[in-house]
Design brief:
heterodimer; A: 444 residues; alpha/beta; Four Helix Bundle (Hemerythrin (Met), subunit A); Rossmann fold; 434 Repressor (Amino-terminal Domain); 3 domains; B: alpha/beta; eight-stranded mixed β-sheet; two-stranded parallel ribbon; 12 helices; 13% strand
Chain lengths: 444, 337
Amino acid sequence: MFDSLSDKLQAAFEGLRGQGKLTEKDVERAAREIRLALLEADVNYKVVKEFVDKVKTRALGAEVLQSLTPAQQFVKIVNEELTALMGSASTKLTFSPRPPTVIMVVGLQGSGKTTACGKLAKFLLGEGKSPALVAADVYRPAAIDQLKTLGAQVGVPVYDEGTTSDPVDIAKRGVEWARTKGRDVLIIDTAGRLHIDAKLMDEVARMRSTVKPHNILLVLDAMTGQDAVNVALQFQEKVQFDGVILTKMDGDARGGAALSVRAVTGKPIKFASTGEKLDGFEYFHPDRVASRILGMGDVLTLIEKVERTIDEKKARELEQKLRKSSFTLEDFLEQIQQVRRLGSLSSLLGMIPGLPANKLKGLQVDDRAFDRIQAIIYSMTPEERRHPDIINGSRRRRIAAGSGSDLHAVNQLLNQFKQVQKMMKQLGSGRVPKNPLQMFRNPS
Amino acid sequence: MAHDWSQVFRGISPEAAASARVESQAAEEKPGGWLTQLREGLAKSRRALQQQFASVLFDRFDEELWETIEEALIYADVGVETTASIVAKLEAEADAGLIKDRSGLITRLREITAAHFCQDDPRIDVDHQPAVILMVGVNGTGKTTTIGKIAWHLKELGREPLLVAGDTFRAAAVEQLVEWGRRVGCEVVHQERGGDPGAVVYDGLVAAEARKADVVIIDTAGRLHTQVNLMKELEKVVRVIKKRMPDAPHECLLTIDATTGQNGLIQARMFKEAVNITGVVLTKMDGTAKGGIALAVSHDLGVPIKLIGTGEKLQSLQPFDPLTFASLLFDETLGRV
């Protein structure tokens, strides 16, 4: 289903390609595919309807008809409208001039509130704040233990009164406690509750009016379906939340619920939470998730990451080398080291658009393979690194022994290097290699 | 009206079920029994659908009507593909003149929807000594809570369940299961957090044999189906179980949160690929979510929905019946509100 989705869109856009003008029929067909894509991405059907109508109107206007590349224009319109709907900029938290700034975290059971609280605390520590946590979930067994464990891992204090006090009182005393302890941000973890549970919704409303938090964040599971709209509307009515933390973003759910919530409540998605590790927490970028919902890959994230890590001067040198086709093993080593600075390979591959999910499935990239490659290259003389052609049988044996690997591994690396060299030449000449994954495959 | 719990578990004698029925009824807080609770939960789902149908469902079958039915199914998270297949069937019957009027249409809509579920035995197999049940699912779907409920029902039926804290990863997951064990009154085998789940599971099975427990229920860490290494860990847990008891696990239940959208199907497929899922527990059916993804999952995987979770109490567990589910979604008064 996942793959056919991208394919369908691709096919719809394919139909738009190579034509001077867009007919109404073309637009209808592409719009239908987008409608299906959005529904499969769990965007609420009412939101989908409005959205598709908007895109159709814009696409049928002169804007597209006068364009030289209708396909590009159409994709652009869809992406722009999607980004506009998600809120065009990432939104920050409100910090009180009189600390502590109080952040109340609410949501359904199992959406990931407690984990999100721990991650938010760590995130704020990184921003130079001194956060603290309050355990106000007195219902779920061991919820307090969970928050205390997270607090210890992150290194922030946790206020709790066990399970016998009223959560509203705990929150109130928690704020006082934070003030005396000199903590400038206080995160209140509340119990998971159903949006139609009158008693618990009343409790959270009372907590809001007693504690008067500066930020109320709704935690939303990225996998949520059509019901996200009901949940968001109910929480908005009862607690008027300020923004959303979208959790479990490391799964393969498209996260259409985020779009629905934004569309019906007007509240921004503020943070995206990914992964089991506590540092998987960042500001939400609407443009990126827009392309994720459409299945266009998270190109922007990749570009930004690459920009941040790769030294521009070195990149220019490399480009020169590519042009002259003098790419050596030394450059190869340099490349590997730069790529590694970006993060794990599997996370990088996930961000490249055009790599279908089914091809990535089962392709577990072993980062340790890089260590082995590095060891082999380090065992070569500078002369050998610059001119791999001189590496004969006896040199190979020496390199294998020196790097603690075997002849087979050395041969494999040299072959791989030749392939990369060839690929680089193609890139330099503007031709795209057929299978860019080849160079990432595990040598074993 | 109470459910006959011998209809829910395979291997429970009707006598044991009969005596338990009284106790579990007495333990209930709400009057009216299981079906009332279920109805109350599903009534919320129903209302939304009724509104959908209200404006168009007159005694005529035009394009607008089909679109409304489609949208209602989409809104229930049934998914585009399954919706298309159900509506196509209904449309074909209508075109052939097999459906005469509105009430006939609703009846067939229910029947076709119900028939789309896998029709295998929905009972949970506890007809082994000991029976081993493995709970799996993504994070936050309600594995641990469901274990507490199943254990409570088995205890009511005179069985001796033993819980195994196989979630050694999440902070306080062990404490959570221990607390459920305390409430139910059954033993929980656990180790330090961060340990090897395989080792805990092995210990659990050894303990079950030594203590002559009837049913071993194994909790596992919530994991996203995209984490290949964690899915491999799950495969290992099954291998460990098989090493000690070659015919176990007798049940491998996947929890799916009713609020889950289309990703639920991908989740289910990946879990089925890793471990042999024998049934689905559809949790959090007491909200406004319709749980329609269960339809696609059951059909696609060819496994029955075995139970539904309808709240946080130990009693809030219901047997699943496809026609009841479909009937409560598509009400008689549909379109006449």
